[in-house]
């Protein structure tokens, strides 16, 4: 592209658009400046103010208490068993301990445990937590029998006695697993195989059916103010509140920094530069006149940056939200995905446009130059630089 100036003699200036790499770096610099400032304002100002306005501390305390109450329903109703070796909120440990107690009912012949460290082990009917749930809580012993038969059918480690209406472990299986409950012995490879298979194919699926039943039909233990589903539904409301607080605070932080960096600053400055352009000494001019772009084009460009910089918005609350939970902030995640699609389209323009212009550069009739190139244009126009 040439800029022609006629004075006492004609002057020609070779103009070289910003290289593809530098054009991408300009955006990346703007993006990271925006993300860092959004991240800071979110954690220092917006989220703390939002917490105070919405009484976050009280809601958080309520969430903690309700979570404990919800898990207490499992233990108080003896759907899960517990000892002092794990916290009641550790459901994984609760399931594992309940399985060991469950299996001890079928392995040991006496109610007394042979392991003093685990007095709960033994042929105590309450250790069969599946039977206890269906018989004592749901009054539906037939479902227990049918479900047990269904999941046992894969390996047939248990046999059902039609007379006593009880399940019993096959003798060879029982003998191999017995060592697990004897502190003076160690279980062999075959016993480990049986132990794992019964957990995977019988107990865990049966317990999953129990949990599904509770999710559907609720669980209420005498003395509890709220039922299991009352606790769960309120917890869900509080988690939705927290997700909304994080989402709205992130959006406010994003928009505030966007206003400052991509709308107010370029409009106020005569050269229409963003902060990254100032730091990198880059100029943006009209493609046809080589003059600095108009305010109208600044507004158009700023709208593009509003969405393009959403690439990192889902990570703005990362100090207050566990990483895996960030993906549950659906609006922020969709914003990041939309930004990726937009940037891929813009990248396509940069790679295949001969003047290294992005999508928004093309739409706003803009061209990026170095400050040195701009100085040459001014000199050719007769300005003293």
Topology of helices and strands:
Elements: E1 2-6, E2 10-14, H1 20-53, H2 56-76, H3 91-107, H4 129-137, H5 141-152, E3 158-161, E4 166-169, H6 171-178, H7 189-217, H8 228-268, H9 275-280, E5 282-286, H10 295-308, H11 323-326, H12 330-352, H13 359-363, E6 366-370, H14 371-380
Antiparallel strand pairs: 1-2, 3-4, 5-6
Helix pairs in contact: 1-8, 2-8, 4-5, 5-7, 6-7, 8-10
Question: How would you explain this protein's 3D organization?
Answer:
The chain has helices at 20-53, 56-76, 91-107, 129-137, 141-152, 171-178, 189-217, 228-268, 275-280, 295-308, 323-326, 330-352, 359-363, 371-380; strands at 2-6, 10-14, 158-161, 166-169, 282-286, 366-370. The relative contact order is 0.13. The chain has 14 helices and six strands. The strands form three sheets. A two-stranded antiparallel ribbon has the order 1-2. Residues 1-8 have low confidence and may be disordered. It is mainly alpha-helical and 385 residues long.
Provide the residue-averaged pLDDT.
Answer: 90
- Strand content of the residues, in percent? 5-15%
Q: Work out the helix count.
A: 14
- Element string (H = helix, E = strand): EEHHHHHEEHHHHEHHHHEH
Helix content: 55-70%
Shape: elongated
> What is the number of beta strands?
6
Biggest sheet overview: 2 strands, antiparallel
Low-confidence stretches: 1-8
Whole-Å distance between the termini? 22 Å
Secondary-structure class: mainly alpha
Q: Rg from C-alpha positions?
A: 34 Å
Oligomer classification:
single chain
Give the strand order of the largest sheet, numbering strands 1, 2, ... along the chain: 1-2
